[in-house]
């Protein structure tokens, strides 16, 4: 598979799906759901210019420290962590880049994930401010908060329906703006959920991502997952 990918006989999307499968990740287990990277950092421009390297996320860094400002706090947390019982090893992040709650968070508008989310929240929807309501806002939250380290799921590259509230669920309204949470707010450069998926998939297969995707793979599936390389890359999870 690696050789096929290097020879460009399979797409970046196909390669990531294969890697997830080999790593034991599966759509049948929310705790081991396939994981895909955030690949863009520009969610505010009117047009998306895939020839400009500045629109892409730095794939060599874990999502928690893509924003340089967070790196110092993350490093200090690791260095200062001491478990009095000596049971827990030092870590950079207390949450994870992929977990069941995160999958339900993204897929809340489609069944069976809606029902699973409601069960998780003791029989009701979580408060509106914590819902997945906007792609630009979700990215901004990642940049501002080193404790939020969610990567993406494959649906961001092929499934426009998860961005629409086609079932008309009452997801509440945001506290400050009083905005009703309905369809997911898209980046300015996307004119519809289908347009978002089309451009996002195009970005995934772009020259820039093809040249840098292996750096992210090292963090998630490769040698930077644990040990000294993980410590150096600020990539140690609880």
Task: Please explain how this structure is put together.
Keywords: Repeat, WD repeat. It holds the Pfam family Beach. Helix 4 (100-106) crosses helix 5. The chain has one domain: Neurobeachin, Chain: A, domain 1, CATH 1.10.1540. It is an all-alpha fold. It has helices at 2-6, 12-22, 68-80, 100-106, 113-120, 135-144, 193-204, 207-220, 228-232. The model has no long low-confidence stretch (mean pLDDT 95). Helices cover 36% and strands 0% of the residues.
- Poorly predicted runs are none
CATH class categorisation: Mainly Alpha
Shape: globular
Largest beta-sheet characterization = none
Written as H for each helix and E for each strand, in order along the chain, the element string is HHHHHHHHH
- Helix percent band: 25-40%
By helix and strand content, what is the structural category?
A: mainly alpha
| CATH topology tier name | Neurobeachin, Chain: A, domain 1
Short key terms for the protein model shown above:
Neurobeachin, Chain: A, domain 1, 238 residues, 9 helices, mainly alpha
